[in-house]
Amino acid sequence: MDKVLELKKIEADMVANTALPLRDAANLVFGEGNVDCAVMFIGEAPGVNEDRLRRPFVGRGGQLLDDMIRGLGWKREDTYITNIVKRRPPENRDPLPNEIEAYKPYLTRQIEVIDPKLIVTLGRFSMNYFLPDAKITRDHGRPLLVDGRTIFPVYHPAAALRSTQMMETLRGDFKKIPSVLSGEFGMIELPPARGVTPQREKPKQAGLF
User: Fold this and answer.
1) Which of 68, 88, 153, 189 could pair with 127 in a Cys bridge, judged by C-beta atoms 3.0 to 4.6 Å apart?
2) Is residue 205 one of the residues assigned to a domain?
3) Long-range contacts formed by 103-108: CB under 8 A, 24+ apart
4) Alpha carbons 20 and 22: distance in angstroms, whole number
């Protein structure tokens, strides 16, 4: 499968969908990075800088994210970065439930194509895409296995910029990512959210009897 081509098809489908919320108010910010990445970061929605440049996480929160990625010895370009809602809500408000539902199928397709080993959710909205009943204050920094996919929730970088304590927590959680990726942490297996596509498993060879 040509991942770049498949992602372009998804983006084209979004451009063509005239029913998507926020279509007339903001630019499409689809996502960027290494399509063969091991780690995929998912946030909630673009902000004003992201809308202007049509790139995810390029404001102050994005600068913090870049800094923490570099702190792991990686480059931003080694990962893939996107959001659930791919257009900026007015005044940077939280995305509405109907907006999240409308954009969910496209994120699901992105995940299927990229098929990362680890998904790091940035903030509660992206965490709740996989785990509707999870609480970010309780479940951050815990590797969770959701129907074959490893999900690692952390605080949103933009939120961490407003709280010294949250910033320290976010940095601490980030330092765990390589160990989570290598499988050193035991996974907590949880049921998937409805509508979330699990990681595809290789078909098992049929038995002789």
Assistant:
1) 153
2) no
3) 103/20, 103/21, 104/129, 104/195, 106/10, 106/13, 106/14, 107/42, 107/82, 108/195, 108/196, 108/197
4) 7
Q: What mean pLDDT is predicted for residues 123-138?
A: 93
Asked whether residue 192 carries a pLDDT value surpassing 70, the answer given is no
In a domain, 203, yes or no: no
Tell me how far apart the terminal alpha carbons of the chain are, to the nearest angstrom: 33
Distance CA 94, CA 134 (A): 18
pLDDT at position 172, please? 97
The reply to whether 186 falls in a domain is: yes
CA-based nearest residue to 156, from 94, 208, 88, 107: 94
Expressed as residue numbers, the domain containing 128 is 3-18+25-190
